[in-house]
Amino acid sequence: MSFYLECKKVKRTGFMPAFLCGGFLAAIVPVLNMAVRSENYLGLQAAPVQILMDANWQMMTMLNILLIVAGACLMYHTEYAENAIQRMCTLPMKESNLFFSKVTFMALMCVMILAIEAASIAFCSYHWFEPSPEVWTEIIKNFGYALLLMLPTALGSLFLASACKNMWVSLGVGVVCVFTATMLPTKNFILSLFPFALPFQIFAGTAEHTAHSFLIAAIAEILIIGIAEVLFLKVRRSFE
Hints:
The chain is mainly α.
């Protein structure tokens, strides 16, 4: 029921159009890059998906994370506006259910934008390269990996948005986290575990044990942030 209500609430905002436009904007990046600078990539000795991801994923990820941060702030702004969240807390439901329903909706939106971007990578692979029959398997693996590494960012952004009643505070903190992540070296495993830095990792060309380590770290961060949100809500409720 709470997820259904979440879907109805976001219809009143620009959340879904913003995610669609953001997904298409990120999807245009590899197409434009190949249209303008295809000679820089056609001679490289690697799988087409790996070449395209190496060349474009950093910019695409930056757009995705900024979209997630802004979307999380918008989702909670509708709750804090005119004390709507306080009235909701009087209903027979846990406030944590509200958070996890938003996480579920955000995860579905991430699936949507990644599907659009995967279609763009597939188009570039077939238009400019001669892909192997396994190209779709590679694309599914890369974007499934990207989705899992993006979830800690989504939970972290929603955690910040739920903690700050002023949307501009959570948005500012989120943007700072994003740009901090861009300055961290992607080859450093420890620094790359920062939730806003994880999505910059690419599955293609990554050693299998390293990819497994990032997947385990992402799952651990999802659990930690989820537990932290539940504890935070309980502490905040006791002081209200």
